[in-house]
Q: What sequence folds into this?
């Protein structure tokens, strides 16, 4: 799968105002569709709306949609199937073999470190504010995601089913985004959307089954938010993110772990 380039961070000494490159319209379409897939709004096997409908919804030309689809096909996110039952079909992640996981984790270690630091900074704050500001509609969204995740990891067979793994990660994103919505802070919601989308590739590539207690941390976070205990909600979110990081890093070879600060 083609790597998605992240924007470069500014450095000391960089000019206050940099050069501007206007994004082509198809690139904006790619960004929006990619984000929807990464956040689990379209699952493997789902069909995107037809080309004509996408063009109308996004207020762009069909030529622009076709250019965007070609990019997403190249990234391995979509396939165009022909015929009466065809369409723009979302592809599942190609999970890596054990030897490939070691190489992947080594090459992505710096990015993952930054990603988890970003999550800790934003999602703990979102959980704290959610506990103070949540409304019934937010609790309803959180509970809906919790119930479905419980079902998806209820048995050994369910936890190993590829479709269930993909759906669990989509519900996981729904849960974390619902917390960000409950914080009622637009900037935190944007930050959590960004971090959840960034988690799509590493999580989808290396996890090939769900743990039997995969939903326990979510239950604890939900309870703290429902009880309006802001400190406990932030604390449990921190524990959850650190546990997720530990699970990923357990897949690293010992030599790579030793290099970590």
A:
């Amino acid at each position: 799968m083609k790597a998605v380039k992240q924007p470069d961070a500014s450095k000391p000494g960089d000019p206050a105002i940099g050069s501007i490159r206007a994004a082509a319209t198809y690139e904006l379409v790619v960004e929006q569709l990619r984000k929807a897939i990464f956040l689990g709004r379209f699952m493997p096997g789902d069909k995107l709306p037809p080309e004509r409908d996408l063009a109308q919804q996004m207020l762009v030309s069909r030529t622009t949609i076709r250019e965007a689809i070609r990019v997403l096909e190249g990234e391995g996110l979509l396939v165009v199937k022909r015929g009466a039952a065809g369409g723009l079909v979302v592809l599942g992640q190609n999970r890596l073999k054990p030897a490939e996981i070691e190489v992947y984790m080594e090459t992505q270690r710096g990015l993952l470190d930054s990603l988890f630091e970003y999550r800790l900074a934003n999602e703990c704050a979102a959980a704290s504010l959610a506990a103070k500001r949540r409304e019934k509609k937010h609790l309803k969204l959180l509970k809906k995601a919790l119930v479905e995740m419980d079902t998806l990891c209820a048995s050994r067979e369910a936890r190993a089913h590829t479709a269930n793994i993909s759906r669990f990660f989509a519900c996981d994103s729904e849960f974390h985004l619902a917390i960000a919505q409950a914080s009622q802070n637009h900037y935190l919601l944007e930050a959590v959307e960004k971090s959840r989308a960034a988690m799509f590739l590493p999580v989808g590539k290396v996890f090939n089954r769900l743990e039997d207690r995969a939903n326990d941390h979510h239950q604890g976070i939900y309870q703290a938010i429902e009880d309006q205990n802001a400190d406990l909600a932030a604390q449990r979110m921190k524990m959850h993110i650190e546990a997720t990081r530990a699970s990923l890093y357990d897949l690293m070879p010992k030599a790579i772990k030793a290099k970590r600060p």
